[in-house]
Amino acid sequence: MAPPTRLPDPAQDVPDRGAVNPVPVAEAPPPPAPVSVPAMTPDALRDQGLALAQTLQLRVMERLDGVLEERLRYALADVVQLQTQALYQSIRQEVEGLVSAAVNEAVAQELADLRYPPATRG
């Protein structure tokens, strides 16, 4: 039988690297100086509030412009369609009355011409 194999001792096989020198850690930057907020007068606060309100109003209106335009287009299309239909009916009735009157007058004239031909009139 073969003699047992000796396993290496990890403590003996590591080469000597010398003394370990610690790596210096960079110092953290000092904390920022506190920011002082100047005291605002009531007028300045009111003006700032008005400016903010105007800015918000403009932003909201910019966002709504597209939506409002589309909805207005559909609403106007519906109104125009209804008005066009009503106008069509009104014009059709007026034209029907004019055509009926013209046809009745033409028929009456033809009947009169048949009863009393133009050559026999006097």
Can you describe what's shown?
The chain has 122 residues and is an all-alpha fold. The chain is built from 2 helices and no strands. The longest helix is centred in the middle third of the chain and has 74 residues, at 42-115.
Topology:
Elements lengths: L9 H4 L28 H74 L7
Short recap of the structure:
This protein is mainly alpha-helical and 122 residues long.
Average of the residue pLDDT scores: 80
Order of helices and strands: HH
What would the principal axes of the Cα set say about the shape? elongated
Report the span from N to C terminus: 160 Å
Number of strands: 0
Q: How much of the polypeptide forms β-strand, as a percent range?
A: under 5%
Tally of helical runs: 2
Biggest β-sheet strands, sense, barrel: none
Rg (CA only): 51 Å
List the defining traits of the structure above.
122 residues; mainly alpha; 0% strand; elongated
